[in-house]
Amino acid sequence: MTADVPHRTTSSRATDRPGDTSPFALGLLLRQAHWRAASVMTEALRPLGIELRHFAVLIVLVDRGPTVQRDLASATGSDKAGIMRVVDDLERKGLAFRKAVPGDRRARAVEITPEGVELFDAAHVAAPPLAERLVADLEPGEPELLMDLLTRFAYPAGGQA
């Protein structure tokens, strides 16, 4: 394998530490930020008896309404087996249910229940103090700037990924 790759040394190797200047620095920093944000969101959801993967599906269902499982998988970055397990969990908890899709005997749409909407709303009541902790070390105006930058980064103009 090394025969095909030109041998070069670089002073900028990935370290996954603050101040890393390697080409991987942004990705590593975003990964660390994701882990920190996910741990805070997990803490907010724990008392409600759901995990972040469940909440991700509830977000899609609240936003889009009844959604076929393959589209849920795509929207949440899950695979077919993973989304089946999450929907099974949500059904057991009474937060969502599957229903037939007219015209497609094999497809099942998932719909949120009133209890699911209640839990979704309760999560939004529980989250603000924890979310504020995420940005506590930022200066005034920086949380909004961070949101703007991350939005433009995640959703680039022209739809390029």
Task: Provide structural commentary.
The radius of gyration is 20 Å and the shape is globular. The chain has helices at 25-45, 52-64, 69-76, 80-92, 114-134, 142-154; strands at residues 67-68, 96-101, 104-112. The model has no long low-confidence stretch (mean pLDDT 89). β2 and β3 (104-112) form a beta hairpin. α1 packs across α5 (114-134) and α3 (69-76) crosses α4. With 161 residues, it is mostly helical. It starts with 24 loop residues before the first helix and ends in a 7-residue tail after the last helix. Strands 1-3-2 form a three-stranded antiparallel β-sheet.
Strand line-up of the largest beta sheet: 1-3-2
Mean pLDDT rating: 89
* Poorly predicted sequence stretches spanning 5 or more consecutive residues: none
Overall strand count? 3
The fraction of residues in strands falls at 5-15%
Cα end-to-end separation:
29 Å
> How large is the radius of gyration?
20 Å
What's the total helix number? 6
Q: How would a crystallographer describe the biggest sheet?
A: 3 strands, antiparallel
**Pattern of helices and strands:** HHEHHEEHH
